């Protein structure tokens, strides 16, 4: 009953197989091998972006920070939600990689920026001339850090606000696949057709060991990105082992299949939770992550039974048995129905 | 006949097996799993350093830059050889991670700093008060970028110069294992017993996919390193897949075995080359990398036969057949005698 | 009728005289002259801090950023009010000088942090391990950017919260003198006796051309500060011309006299404004800066008559004559009663 | 007998007068005043560059670092002489302001780069793809740090090498006026007509308290420079006091007059030194700075008589009386014939 994170599950077996296959003799380092060229071409197909520049890195923080650094000057500010991963969970990596840019937080209630809030926040930063930072990129996360989801149309609406202000748009797609299959749109529709300039296309949370692709739809910044990746220590010498994972991910749409499994598991979970009167949802689950609250006694039963998940802004210490306490539950691709049902049964008591 | 680099060869099969074994269900992320704790303990044993702080990252540039950033202030300068990897091949990563420290180059003839040259260089930087940078860490590479090697005693002599000046010592051990088995000393003798404060303990060039350990012998800087690793985007969420590689590397001293294989291959190669009158060595080969020169005609024969290696500061374009041209040859752990013999046969003509 | 800023008024004549006196022949550069040594000693006396390290720079942004950089690591976050000058008006200078530290904003209603809000904000940042930044310095501004003021006791209460968390305390004293004379306490009481580690002791807004002193009560960081000042380009070669201004400032307590004049002017202004029914104060004026609102028609009269000041979060464009619109009014040391009275008369209509 | 530095002499009286005149009542801050607009226009005239962007800062390190940061990316390297002020005397400020760019040193014998050496150095940096830094700006210093001088034609030859490689050109003109009057050319001839993109136009070493202008001949980078200046803490709120100095400097060509005085003094000095058999010149004096060697005994006489200057890479400690020891002598605008003659007399013995 491991609902703690989608970075704690196993990788798909085809990833291991791909690594083994890639391990055949010598290959040019640093991405100069044939498999990398093929995989880059495949990602361009997936995104219907034949000119896009595509690079692989091993962590989501690297993908986001390098993407932002390529689009933000150090004297600018990046606009993102007040719960954005780049703000809360990357230990100043965006500030580091941009050379000291600021993050300006757009207030949200459920992790999703509205166009109005974004517009007002940008306007607020644009009033002080050189005394304040220059407005810079807008960064959108989908799936959001609260488990909610933007539709492609909603992303397009945010990107339109960015465009009004002449600002580029970054999409943190650590859970891109989960958002995509939940909506049922194409990668192009969720990115460049919606006005996104650069996307962190996540693989790690969806069945890979540690691979993210950064896709820059305007290849003019490609060389800059390459230098920045290298000086960040994120260019792998034995690059084929990143590539092999990504190739397996894309092969016969494995990535979509894995995301559908995770989302289906989450749907089963939320359906069951929704039928328990003591359970309330903190935000509307949009893909594979659910925030909900239920009585402390049920948490105690679950932890006693070995369930793994994070409490959400609350503590069981000294809590009354009927006190509602929040939880964050994440389903990864390998989550089983059995686990879900057992979890719900114990919760129900 | 692939002598281009030790980052172009395959990984050892036990690495693949270890990844497969590690892929068993859920594990805590970010290094919070049991295997990581065990592997850290094992590295401490290897280095006879029970208090050391040990961290895994995926690239040598990350290891070096994070180690240096933990020991250097942005207003300092790092002392290293004029051919150091951190100077020539990391695209300003040390400058980036330290926040703008400088590298001051110690002149060398064969990639090895002498204590005298190091002392003179440090003295030269210490004369301008706040107008020049403050002297900072000394960084030593072993095996050097010219294929030569320091003994532990030579490292101790350099570290003594650092200590005279109150400076910490970093060892770039991208080929640590190759240097170690060539000398036949212990990891402790080549590091903390010689005065090294922090070592980049390389695995990638010696049979892993991409794992380096940073070992800080003084744990006082451990927390700082952790924050710096995270904000550099080098903390892996699915950390177990780094750990599994390192665990396999240390298991039954595989790492030493692999290094011995690479060094033995290089010895076979240099023995054969030494018997060819037209071949001259540029520097004395100390481990698994050889720099040598021979007539252009022989280079042409080799490339025509499919040999892969880098010319060294020369070009075949328009070169007379008997003009000597340099080459860099690197043997990795998987190099076969057959390959070596064939290479030498073709070279000999 | 110039109420726009205290950086727009003239310098006191004794400053010009001091520059002229200092211009006598040769002097050692970079602060190595005798007058600098004497002036440093004088500042130590003023602060009753015989061990303090004291440095002069030319701008408040330099003073604040260098002070924070000396106390904050790049992987930390600085706690400050949501309207702090270091956040709103320094164009990412703190992020730049610290190498990418973050600023975490403490919510305020009148520019003043409460101990409770500060404590809660620090606690909120301390929950994510290396995923979030490490808590770093607390920065307090007195006089605040809303014209309100902390007492020394209130500063001590904030510093106590910092101490609970092991964090150092910076005081942005761009208007230190104004705060000091308003309370009637000593410089020591408002700084180190209250728990402040480093203060930006402002001169520019109080009658100098451009000089601020940074006073570090713990001299252990002195050398680091010197290197950071130099590499920021803030070490003046002809340092005596900074020193001469500061010496004149301290001579016979000119600085206190100038601040008293500015505060008295502001008191005259607010007294008069308080008697006009249409005028409401946005926050309680604590020293020499007042935020108030009055009908648009009165603003129009004032601007027509040549008054200079900034509207506060409002616009006269299309505003009804009786619509209340905010204004920021600042009195510098040279403000005359005549100007104030005329301003109020016109406002009153 | 103060030959230690041209930053140790007094400012010209007209500078003090200008400050006094500028101190008339209120003025808009941050360069928004009329005098600044006029002075910018005047500098454009001086450089025959009606479109140029012109900014004032207070130190040469600020001018150089901000200029370089505007033209260099953090993953680039700046080419400069091995004795450049930006390398030797700015405590990593260029590395800081560029966000971690490297400086690649061009070997010189007398402080002057040759086109051949520059071309070879650039070529050497361009061979490693993303493993090495990307070639960035070329920075030239005139007058050089060895007192030698480039002609405008020599600068044009260096700039041509930069252009071949697509690189921008920075001129560190801390002693621009001295170089200019020594050659007898126009500011335009020494800068944009020779291929210079941005110049640090020094005033501090030539009679001002602390003002340098940065002139960007392509105004496209103007806004970026403004943001960078602000976030460096180098935008003066009471900007008029920088402007007033620069205005006085340009008034009736005072700047050229002051430089002519300094150069004439240096010429008198070198003429006299040249007639003393025991004196040898280290490099050919080109403007107002001379490096020469003479017997230790004469140094001892001079210091005993109160002369102030720096020894050059040597020490009197234990030196034999007839041992030649080097010295650096700098004449500022206020140097008197009497001082020079007395210095030479004592030296002669």
Characterization of the model:
- The structure is a homotetramer of 349-residue chains.
- By secondary structure, chain A is α/β, with parallel strands linked by helices.
- Chain A folds into 2 domains: 13-254, Type I PLP-dependent aspartate aminotransferase-like (Major domain) (Aspartate Aminotransferase, domain 2), CATH 3.40.640.10; 256-348, Aspartate Aminotransferase, domain 1, CATH 3.90.1150.10.
- The mean pLDDT of chain A is 97.
- In chain A, the strands form 2 sheets. In chain A, strands 1-7-6-5-4-2-3 form a 7-stranded mixed sheet, sandwiched between helices.
- In chain A, β4 (134-141), α7 and β5 (169-173) form a beta-alpha-beta unit.
- Chain A contains 14 helices and 11 strands.
- Helices cover 41% and strands 17% of the residues of chain A.
- The interface between A and B is large, with 50 and 50 residues.
Can you lay out the helices and strands and say which pair or pack?
4 copies of one chain form a homotetramer.
Chain A: H1 13-22, H2 34-46, E1 53-57, H3 60-71, E2 76-81, H4 85-88, H5 93-98, E3 102-106, H6 115-125, E4 134-141, H7 152-164, E5 169-173, H8 176-183, H9 187-190, E6 198-202, E7 212-216, H10 222-231, H11 240-250, H12 254-274, E8 280-281, E9 289-295, H13 296-304, E10 310-312, E11 324-330, H14 337-348
């Amino acid at each position: 009953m491991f609902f703690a994170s989608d970075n704690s599950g196993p990788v798909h077996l085809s990833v291991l197989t791909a690594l083994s296959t890639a391990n055949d003799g010598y290959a040019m380092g640093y991405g100069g091998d044939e498999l990398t060229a093929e995989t880059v071409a495949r990602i361009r197909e997936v995104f219907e972006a034949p000119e896009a520049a595509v690079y692989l890195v091993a962590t989501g923080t690297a993908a986001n920070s390098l993407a932002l650094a390529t689009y933000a000057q150090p004297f600018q500010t990046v606009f993102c939600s007040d719960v954005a991963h780049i703000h809360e969970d990357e230990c100043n990596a965006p500030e580091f990689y941009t050379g000291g840019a600021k993050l300006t937080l757009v207030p949200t209630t459920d992790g999703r920026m509205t166009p109005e809030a974004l517009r007002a926040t940008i306007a607020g930063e644009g009033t002080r001339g050189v005394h304040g930072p220059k407005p810079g990129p807008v960064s959108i996360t989908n799936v959001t850090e609260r488990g909610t989801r933007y539709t492609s149309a909603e992303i397009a609406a945010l990107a339109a606000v960015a465009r009004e202000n002449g600002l580029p748009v970054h999409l943190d797609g650590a859970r891109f696949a989960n958002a995509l299959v939940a909506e049922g749109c194409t990668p192009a529709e969720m990115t460049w057709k919606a006005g996104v300039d650069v996307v962190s296309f996540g693989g790690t949370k969806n069945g890979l060991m540690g691979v993210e692709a950064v896709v820059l739809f305007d290849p003019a910044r490609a060389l800059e990105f390459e230098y920045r990746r290298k000086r960040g220590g994120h260019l792998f010498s034995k690059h084929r082992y990143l590539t092999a994972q990504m190739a397996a991910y894309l092969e016969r749409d494995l990535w979509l299949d894995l995301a559908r499994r995770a989302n289906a598991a989450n749907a089963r979970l939320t359906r069951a939770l929704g039928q328990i009167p003591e359970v309330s949802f903190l935000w509307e689950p949009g893909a594979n992550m659910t925030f909900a609250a239920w009585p402390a006694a049920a948490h105690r039963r679950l932890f006693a039974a070995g369930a793994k998940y994070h409490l959400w802004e609350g503590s069981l210490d000294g809590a009354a048995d009927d006190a509602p306490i929040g939880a964050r539950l994440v389903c990864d691709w390998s989550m089983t129905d059995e686990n879900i049902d057992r979890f719900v049964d114990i919760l129900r008591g």
